[in-house]
Specification:
One of its GO terms (molecular function) is delta(3)-delta(2)-enoyl-CoA isomerase activity. It contains 7 helices and 7 strands, in the order H-E-H-E-E-H-E-E-H-H-E-H-E-H. It is of the alpha/beta class. The protein has one domain: 2-enoyl-CoA Hydratase, Chain A, domain 1.
Length: 164
């Protein structure tokens, strides 16, 4: 939603400007990272505000390390946010993917560029063109995430952020 995008942008800009902030951790709420955009918003009148692509680029350009704590699902735009992060930690039960292709849409926030850079073209093409949900253990093998944990994902991401 526009509200979430604006909050991400504001938080990233505050973190960048605050010398006491050494790293940033992005997580979802209630055990879910992000299921992506609400497609009902695509048919609404042109909205003003922040778009997902520039937010993901802002994350990627951050001079401070940004860690994604992925719980539940990181799908569509949610995965694109995670791809913009410098590090990704996933709970063992998490799933990731770009399912928008199953309704005739292509990922719109440069996921089609970031994913192949991260995991290679063949694996990325499979995920992009099928829309399948990749379990965390497979995501680790592919290099999509840096670590898979069974414990509290947010705490693990904070530990990694402090370490880097």
């Amino acid at each position: 939603s526009v509200t979430v995008l604006q909050a991400l942008e504001d938080g990233l800009k505050r973190a960048a400007a605050d010398p006491s902030v050494k790293a940033v951790m992005i997580c979802g709420e209630s055990g879910k990272f992000s299921a992506g955009a609400d497609i009902r918003g695509f048919s609404s009148p042109k909205r003003h505000g922040t778009a997902l692509g520039p937010i993901v680029s802002l994350i990627e350009r951050s001079e401070k390390p940004v860690v994604a704590a992925i719980e539940g699902v990181a799908l569509g735009g949610g995965l694109e946010v995670a791809l913009g992060c410098h590090y990704r930690i996933a709970h063992v039960k998490a799933r990731m993917g770009l399912p928008e292709v199953t309704i005739g849409l292509l990922p719109g926030a440069e996921g089609t560029q970031r994913l192949p850079r991260l995991i290679g073209v063949p694996a990325a093409l499979d995920i992009i063109t099928t829309g399948r949900h990749v379990p965390a253990t497979e995501a680790l093998k592919l290099g999509l995430v840096d670590e898979v944990v069974e414990e509290n994902t947010v705490e693990a991401a904070i530990r990694l952020a402090n370490k880097v």
